[in-house]
Amino acid sequence: MARAAKSVAAKSAAAKAASAKSERGMSVPRARLDRALNPKSVVVVGDKGPGFQWLSNLSEFSGPVYSVQLDEKEIPGIEAKGIKNFKSLLDVPGTVDLVICAVPRQVTPFVVGDAIKKGVGGISMFTSGFEETGEPQAVELQARLVAMCREGGMPLVGPNCMGIYNRRLGVKFTAGQEKGTGGDIGIISQSGTHGIGMSLGAQRAGIRVSRTISIGNAAVLNECDYLQYLRDDPDSPVIAMYLEGTRDGRRFFNLLKETTKLKPVILWRGGRTKAGARAVRSHTASLAADGAVWDGLVRQTGAIPVHSIDEALDAIAALVNTDRPRGRRVALIAMTGGQSVAITDHFEREGFEIPELSKRSYDRLAEFFMTIGGSYRNPFDAASTIGRETDNLRKILEILAEEPIIDGGVGIELGARGFDTDPGRLNAQLDLLETYRKKTGLPVISMMPVGGAMGGDELTVLAARNAATARGFAVYPNFERGAAALGRVVSHFQWLGSK
Amino acid sequence: MSDAIATARAEGRTLLSEVESKELLRAAGIPVTEARLATSASEAAAIATEIGFPIVLKIISKDIAHKSDVGGVALGLESASAVRRAYSEMLERVLAAAPKARIDGVSVQQQALPGTEVIVGATTDPQFGPVMMFGLGGVFVEVLKDVSFRIVPLERRDARQMIREINGFPILQGVRGQKGADLKALEKLVLDVSKLVWKRGDIAELDLNPVFAYPDGAIAVDARIVLKAVDADGKEG
User: Fold this and answer.
1) What angle do CA A348, A353, A357 make, to 5 degrees?
2) Going from the N-terminus, what domains does chain B have, and what CATH number goes with each?
3) B160: distance to nearest CA of chain A, Å?
4) ipTM of the assembly?
5) Where are the alpha helices (DSSP H) in B11-108?
6) pTM for this entry
7) How far is B159 from chain A (nearest CA, A)?
8) pLDDT digit string (tens) for A300-324?
9) Domains of chain A
10) N or C, which end of chain A has less CB nearby within 10 Å?
11) Using a CB-CB distance cutoff of 8 angstroms, which residues of chain A are in contact with residue B205?
């Protein structure tokens, strides 16, 4: 459940208004894109053994799968998988919604031609060796495909891409992608690797990825079309994008600005566009480095900027697995004195306040808190208090839940030591944190560092982190990443409220 | 089309002179120091008397990019005779430093009271089209590149935030007991430039450098506008 995102997605009136305009500017009619991204039947053209990766990726697909392969050597392998093979796309029975094209590049115009003749919904082209090579002939070949698709109104995903993953239908481009219902996030990636990285990484954190679209050369359909589509997709209450540039800066700017009003958009920009040989005659132009303009774009549209796969996944976890913060004043609970200083440093660096609590809270804390070897001023140095009696964490969290000054939630260092022999302790703590977040609707950021006195060894910590993640908590391996992730989320929501 | 642009286009130029740039800006309601073209020492003196002292003279030539490098700027002229003398000396200096430069004349300007120097600019980004920049002038922009960008057209929020997000913002808030800059006036100036660039669509680059920011108001002291090139069909490229 996308907690932080939920309240935004609830603006359904705005979403409806947006979807009424959803055809505007799209490279192909929306209905065509719908069919290609939600196929009921798939044909793989040109898959090869021994792995037959594309046919294998469709083993959980809910509709019929056919193969087109002329190579006699490959056909027995395909049929052994129980998949019917044809010599031509035109021979395949019934309607075809998606063609996955994995043929050598010189054959691609024939596949596209047949697909248009057959009236298929769309093509996802894995084949590479086009514009990205920079070779004049390859660029020309891509231009030829684009011209064919434009004329035939054919949605082409790629080329040079991994294509589409659709959770509900079980269309996958890597074996680890899950089939299932619902969705917490939709992903668009110019890089296949980062698409897989974000898709599987988010899934590992217990997050349901509705779709991942690897856009490759974005020759016909581009990042704007996909963003527009995901903007209106109820299975994607959060969007994450990896881009190296944009094909249509104006449309992208306008779309991004519109979309962030409806749902959070995480934007990971990789690389730099070469400015090209431009005669620059002003001071401003000489300073308008590509990165500076993209920074401006992010600030102007309210997108959530990230700069690595870790930052992307950290932000995804915070958006999906925490509630929406109402401000920047947090309570921090660490296990030891040193860690209570470190956690405070990191949260302050991200612009959080760690305020003093009310007298009433301090009076209640004084009744049970171990102040010898501990402190409750906020930050909390709590190991001696919680370690003795887990129920003391319940008391602390109850007091914090009633503390009006805390509007950003709780950041807590969870000790993993002993998790291998007694997982019950961690679970009991998570139960209490669950109660806190239900009661307050505020974020809980859990941090389980290896280095802390309560950390334990690497494998124990990893197992404990996974257990907390599986229960729907945003869990981070250190304070800086937890603080940065929550910082990004709160900055985004504050931006939405800014004038 | 304003006269300044028509003249530049007719002459096949894309670079507007400071006088032309300011004419265009003033017509758009953007505060600029008054600047008029003089082509003789006595004309310069007459204009100066009309504008009021102190006066600044700046050389106007399409062939000179950096006026101060060739002695093409004279500051703090307090009388008509000082202006006349400065005019003649400037022409001699410039022609000695750049003998081949074609000189259109001298811009006679009101000398603004010193304020906090900021730069407001616009340029054309290859991906996003018109974008705007804000920064503090001098070393902040030259060395530290402490500037912020936004895509045109800007909303009020963008103007507010781009001014506040530069690292040097505390300087605009006032340091060492000095009064802060008029942020409202700066925001308005940024938004008016955004409007001008967006509405016209034919401005490729624009520098207001420096703009003097005061506790009450702000004014562009120097201005440079580059138009988009026009191809043979009369279309902007």
Assistant:
1) 135
2) 34-110 (3.30.1490.20), 116-227 (3.30.470.20)
3) 9
4) 0.89
5) 18-27, 41-51, 80-97
6) 0.92
7) 10
8) 999 999 999 999 999 999 999 999 9
9) 29-157 (3.40.50.720), 163-273+282-320 (3.40.50.261), 325-497 (3.40.50.261)
10) C
11) 280-282, 284-285
